[in-house]
Amino acid sequence: MTETITRTTGSADVRGLSRWTAAVILPIGPAAVALLRYFLPYDTVDDSSTMTSKVMAEPGRMSLVLWLGFIALLTLVPAAYSVGRMTRRRAPLLTAIAMFLVVPGYLALPWLAGTDQLLWSGTEAGLDANTITRLAETPHPTVAVAGVFFVLGHVLGTILLGMAMWRSKVVARWAAVAVIVSQPIHFVAAVIIPNHTLDLIGWGLQAVGFAVVGWAILRLRNDDWDLPAVA
User: Fold this and answer.
1) Residue 183 and residue 207 in contact, taking contact as beta carbons nearer than 8 Å
2) Could you tell me where the DSSP H helices lie in the chain?
């Protein structure tokens, strides 16, 4: 039994718009996180009391971080999907594992951003430092679970996604390497040797690598990007 697929006549072909949208979105999320990590008023390894005092000293900076986080939340998953869409034909297993890790990791971000929102809101509401600290130290158990999903997802998942870029040869090898090393650099800068400039470089490398994927998408023909609509 065979199925015949025919092109739709008289309907708009949105594949070009889809390609351009994917290309534009690709670097936005990692770039937003790069700036977020640079402007973050505290270090990841700070205790709750120190985090509270630093946010209370610079609430405007914390507000900027929250806006950047919001932008990242809207764009990181579509960006990862677009990279996977480019690599899955030539590196299907690597791409599948990477997406299995990185998408849930990015989706866990809102739970982690909740602490930052609490610190800013408590400051704006005029709460004292002890009260804000106590609230920050009493998270719901899902926050810890989200942390595990995020760390495994965005570190290991991004490494595998970069390896899929390397194997599939959809971009220059240097761009794949930039994505592969980006999150290990972030991990060192966030956890081992707190350094916001190094963190900016780490996430910035992922933004550059994703931008190169975006350029590769723009160079595709519509038929190479997606199937045409059918009647």
Assistant:
1) no
2) 15-25, 28-39, 48-57, 59-87, 92-107, 109-124, 129-136, 141-151, 157-168, 173-187, 196-218, 222-225
Alpha-carbon distance of 223 to 46, in angstroms, equals 51
pLDDT by residue (tens digit) across 145-188?
Answer: 999 999 999 999 999 999 999 999 999 999 999 999 999 999 99
Cβ pair 179, 162 in contact under 8 A:
yes
Helix (H, G, I), strand (E, B) or coil at 132: helix
Among positive and negative, which fits the CA dihedral 131, 133, 137, 140?
A: positive
Using CA atoms, how far apart are residues 23 and 217, in angstroms rounded to an integer?
6
Q: How far is CA 168 from CA 85, 94, 98, 115, in A?
A: 11, 10, 14, 39
Q: At residue 24, what is the residue type?
A: V
Distance of CA 187 to the CA centre of its chain: 14
Given a cut of 50, whether residue 6 has pLDDT beyond it is: no
Q: Is the dihedral of CA 24, 203, 102, 75 positive or negative?
A: negative
Q: Is the pLDDT of residue 209 over 50?
A: yes
Q: Where are the domains of the chain?
A: 15-223
Count other C-beta atoms under 10 Å from residue 194's C-beta: 15
Specify the residue for token string 């870029």: 165
pLDDT tens-digit readout, 89-148: 999 999 999 999 999 999 999 998 989 999 999 999 999 999 999 999 999 999 999 999
Q: Please report how many Cα atoms fall inside a 13 Å half-sphere around the Cα of residue 200, on the Cβ side.
A: 8
Q: pTM for this structure?
A: 0.91
